[in-house]
């Protein structure tokens, strides 16, 4: 439905403007209500996100011990002493700390 705005009188244009304003307000109210309902739904159904990983600065027990008493937790970059030992053919399991030594 197209309206020829040029052909309407001033009174008709004012009535049309009032109708448009009422229609816009009704749609705005409905959209706001729908949004409020969705907000309530998502607030109830959403579970809090679990934090992943470990907090910075957390201390870990060493897992590996080197020939000179150096220790490594097994996290991060492989230390030089272990890289050197692996390069000459050593078994990394040989450097693991035994349960009774901890």
Automatic annotation (TrEMBL):
It comes from the Bacteria. It holds the Pfam family Histone_HNS. GO terms for molecular function: DNA binding. SUPFAM superfamilies: H-NS histone-like proteins. Residues 67-97 form the DNA-binding protein H-NS-like C-terminal domain. This is H-NS histone family protein. It comes from Variibacter gotjawalensis.
């Amino acid at each position: 439905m197209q309206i020829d705005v040029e052909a309407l009188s001033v009174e008709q244009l004012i009535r049309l403007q009032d109708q448009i304003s009422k229609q816009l307000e009704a749609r705005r109210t409905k959209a706001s209500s729908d949004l409020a309902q969705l907000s309530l739904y998502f607030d109830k159904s959403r579970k809090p996100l679990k934090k992943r990983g470990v907090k910075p600065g957390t201390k870990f027990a060493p897992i590996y011990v080197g020939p000179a008493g150096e220790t490594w937790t097994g996290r991060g970059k492989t230390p030089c002493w272990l890289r050197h030992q692996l390069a000459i053919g050593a078994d990394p399991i040989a450097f693991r700390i035994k349960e009774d030594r901890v």
